[in-house]
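dumping this here so i dont lose it
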């Protein structure tokens, strides 16, 4: 009897280790994300910024949320000589686990796309793809208030807040780091 109970415990532990967390989902890696951000691009590049205290303060004020890191990487895409826009992969905590969200802006800072790259909370806390697509054509002029400008999602309140914060941060990066013109020139250049 003791043999069987020990065997059951060992098999159960092995199964849990083998399976891992059932809710952790990685949908796209970084390379796939940039390809999806700029599907028509003939070239892409990236620039990593180490934000100054002043930039952090401006971005946090404009984005209405705290930054998790002073390190920000922004991707840019071109089709020939035509600048397509900016993309950022925002990794943030939803409730207690991370979500990776791709936010893509056109040269005028309107949202072209929001896409969940990874979601480690239980999947029932993740809104539908259609909900994420409602950010398309939003701009820094939009307030993005949950329940007013952005639909609330029952059972996914923290995810909706985290997503809105991600989009606002991307708008803030645009306003603080980039020249507001369609040249693809960064403000630091």
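and the seq i came up w/
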């Amino acid at each position: 009897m003791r043999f069987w109970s020990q065997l059951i415990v060992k098999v159960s532990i092995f199964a849990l280790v083998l399976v891992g967390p059932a809710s952790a989902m990685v949908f796209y890696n970084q390379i796939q994300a940039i390809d999806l951000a700029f599907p028509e691009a003939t070239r892409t590049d990236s620039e990593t910024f180490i934000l100054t205290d002043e930039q952090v303060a401006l971005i946090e004020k404009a984005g209405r949320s705290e930054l998790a890191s002073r390190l920000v990487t922004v991707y840019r895409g071109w089709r020939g000589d035509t600048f397509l826009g900016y993309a950022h992969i925002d990794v943030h905590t939803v409730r207690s686990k991370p979500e990776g969200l791709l936010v893509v802006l056109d040269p005028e800072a309107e949202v072209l796309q929001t896409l969940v790259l990874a979601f480690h909370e239980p999947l029932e806390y993740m809104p539908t793809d259609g909900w994420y697509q409602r950010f398309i054509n939003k701009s820094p002029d939009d307030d993005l208030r949950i329940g007013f400008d952005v639909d609330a999602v029952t059972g996914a309140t923290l995810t909706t807040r985290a997503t809105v914060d991600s989009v606002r941060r991307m708008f803030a990066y645009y306003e603080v780091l980039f020249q507001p013109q369609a040249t693809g020139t960064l403000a630091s250049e």
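The two ends are 73 Å apart (CA to CA).
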